[in-house]
Design brief:
Blueprint (H helix, E strand, L loop, with lengths): L8 E5 L3 H11 L2 E9 L1 H7 L5 E8 L6 E9 L19 E4 L3 H10 L9 E3 L3 E7 L5 E7 L2
Parallel strand pairs: 1-4, 5-8
Antiparallel strand pairs: 2-3, 3-4, 6-7, 7-8
Protein name: VOC family protein
Pfam family, one: Glyoxalase_4
GO molecular function, one term: metal ion binding
Length: 146
């Protein structure tokens, strides 16, 4: 028996909602909506009394899974580990297929975001790189080869 109907979205808590949103929009995602959430629903789901968040929902061009960026208005955010490496427990990366990996990596570098390692090729099928984006979010960019 499966309880999952579809993969809906990945949520990431950030401090600079506008800056992180701008990064993902420049990468090619589209803002689907922006809103504040507070009250009994949020307090029940996240388990934080008197909480309020501002949320931006981003959609991929193919209409697949979405990316939810959330900023806590209250209580204040708790610092994470923005320099986390791939072996640190927790969310490892957010991954996107791109048409031109080199152009995407060059764009990220021009915006001040560097590679975690290098550009690798997997079995002649994929080229991939990890870019450490805003607030330390690791963004995996992959391009089909051939």
């Amino acid at each position: 028996m499966s309880f999952v109907r579809r993969f809906d979205h990945v949520g990431i808590t950030v401090e600079d909602l506008d800056g992180v949103t701008a990064f993902f929009v420049a990468l090619g995602l589209e803002v689907e909506g922006r809103t504040y959430v507070e009250g009994e629903f949020l307090e029940t789901v996240c388990g934080i009394p008197d909480s309020r968040t501002e949320i931006v929902m981003l959609a991929a061009p193919d209409g697949g899974a979405r990316l939810e960026l959330a900023r806590f208005v209250r209580p204040a955010s708790v610092p994470g580990s923005p320099a986390a490496m791939a072996n640190e427990l927790g969310l490892r990366n957010v991954s996107f297929e791109v048409d031109d990996l080199r152009a995407a990596v060059d764009w990220a570098a021009s915006e001040g975001y560097g590679l975690v390692g290098g550009i690798g090729e997997y079995e002649g099928a994929w080229r991939m790189a990890y870019v450490r984006g805003p607030e330390g979010i690791v963004v995996s960019l992959a391009e089909r080869v051939g």
